[in-house]
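Worked example

This section walks through a single chain of length 261. The input is the sequence exactly as stored; nothing has been trimmed or padded.
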Amino acid sequence: MSNLHIVQKVANVLVYLLFLSATVYNLVGSTPSDPVVHDGQTYLTPSHWIEYVWTLIHFLLGGFVIYQWFEPAHEAAIHGVGWHFVVSVLLSSAWLTLLQHGHYIIGFVFVLLTASSVSCVFYKLAKDYPTTSWWDKLFIHAPFSLWHGWIVYSAVINLFQAFTGLRENGPSVWIRILAILAIVFLTSTAIGYVEYKKHKGDITGAVVIGLGLLAIFTNQHDAWIHWPALAGAIITLLYPARILVLKYTGRSAPENAPLLG
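Given that input, the structure is written out below as tokens.
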């Protein structure tokens, strides 16, 4: 292991600790003012329980910064994840801080930058660094698959925070249409996750989006948003089961073009 590789791994540990501290502070130590909380509410805002997914991602990323020091993880950590982990963590920390202070438009820019950086890791690992053990699946591929699904979902939520809000007389027709389009986009993206990595059985990103749609269903009560969110959640959570059934019964899934590239 070269000195540069050691520096990179130490940097991963340090930014992870920063990431964890910033997230805990934003969630516990700093309470947004009532106007900020109100401005952040939209007709696509999910229930708070979906944030437990973020907790799981933190836990698995913590496993990554430990597992990277072991020889089986070296190549994937250094050349697959690379410095994108540091970049992604710094961008994500800035994004969360911006949201906490009500800067939703600038926050949307940062969530797109974060999504771009996490996507580089997601596709690099999927293409060039297949898993060789359950440790690889759990602490290299799973954290970034979950993170990628979460950041795509969060970008859609943040988009609505940046450019829409609550109305006294309920959502307009256009807001309902946009919300339905967002739900369709998320559902299609989740299906794309499964199709893109179906031969490897990676369904984590799809499950994250499926749970996110379920959280929208439980928090939104306008029928034009409530029920499409439930339909999207059901499709998204059941579709991966189709791939698993085909896989474990020895049948081949049809060769569809992936929706994510």
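What to look for: The mean pLDDT is 86.
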